[in-house]
Amino acid sequence: MNTPAPPALTIRSLRLVPVEVPMTFALGTSADVIRLAPLLLIDLETEEGVTGRAYLFCYRRSGARAIIEVLQDAFALVKGQRAAPLEIAALLGRRFALIGVTGIVRMALSGLDAALWDAVAHAAGLPLAQLLGSASKPVRAYNSSGLGLIGADAAAEEAIKLLEGGFKAVKLRLGYATLEEDLAVARAVRRRLPDEIAVMVDYNQALSVAEALRRGRVLESEGLFWLEEPIRHDDYVGSATIARELSLPVQIGENFDGPKAMADALAAGACDSVMPDLGRIGGVTGWMQAAGIAAARGIEMSSHLFPEVSSHLLAATPTCGWLEYVDWAIPILQEPLAIKDGYAVVSATPGSGLAWDEQAVERYRME
Ligand SMILES: [Mg+2]
User: Fold this and answer.
1) 77 CA to centre of ligand 1 in angstroms
2) pTM attached to this predicted model
3) What is the distance between the alpha carbons of residues 236 and 269, in angstroms, rounded to a whole number?
4) What's the 252 CA to ligand 1 centre distance in angstroms?
5) How far apart, in whole angstroms, are the C-alpha atoms of residue 317 and residue 327?
6) Most buried among 9, 60, 228, 342, using CB within 10 Å?
7) 3-state DSSP call for residue 61?
8) Closest Cα to residue 127, out of 346, 312, 350, 285?
9) Nearest to 246 by CA among 292, 212, 207, 282
10) CA angle 57, 59, 60 (to 5 degrees)
11) How far is the CA of 83 from the centre of ligand 1 (A)?
12) pLDDT digits (tens, 9 = 90+) for 229-275
């Protein structure tokens, strides 16, 4: 049987819409409290009529504005070119080398890359996971919504609510002023949940190495699943000390700036497992390179945010770990990511499963 080749796509136009979506549970970390999710919606249109979509979580309004500037600049450099993600990544990496592909620039280029892959998957008529060679298997997910720095009683109450949908794991933010407070909250949540529910804890870079060792040594006998970003994200030497000294597995990766940062972290022994972020690792292209590094080293790889696209990517990741589930994009999506018995069901339609609810987009459009 001869299957016609999918059409080559030519980049035509870019539509960028920043929205601010109310969150069901505030994201209260040791660094900041976020109640409205600033998302940037990216629609990349092609001459052939195929549209590729992606979204970025911009952390702050100013982040969205800055990323729009960079994305418009990047788009002007690739307009009229073939929508081939690897070629575009190489070209833009070179053209942005002087300012540096990091931070806001990295996020902008990652978003463009994810939209390009979505377009290619649509043109091929395949879910992204299948385009990447996976059978689109379900991916185990933990509920990472909520569980901010809200105190022991409130956190224990909220943890129960987060099990709806059959989740078998939740993530708790720590980084209170004292070890005693961290311990009280961790114990309250751990005791309120059934034993089989995993509890990950995340410090969002709050501690010094010495303090991470002090708190970690106490927390490691509390039945927790992993210790995330206890210290500054790029202190791989310090992180390696913590990973070596504690029996509690150290998890980092949401701040890996491209696959090389992950390779450097693993070479330094900075962590026991990794969780790259689609928007910082370099989009789908960067993710797949990172997945190769993790596979070569036999390191479990989980995801950070963007559960819709990350479910496809994890399905195609040889050392697939956990999907970080947040519900932030649900209000602007036509079809939210389905969770069944604690597993993410990878969308079966062509692309990465993103389509906007245009009425909601208008409602939440950022001023
Ligand atoms: Mg984190």
Assistant:
1) 33
2) 0.96
3) 8
4) 8
5) 22
6) 228
7) helix
8) 350
9) 212
10) 125
11) 32
12) 999 999 999 999 999 999 999 999 999 999 999 999 999 999 999 99
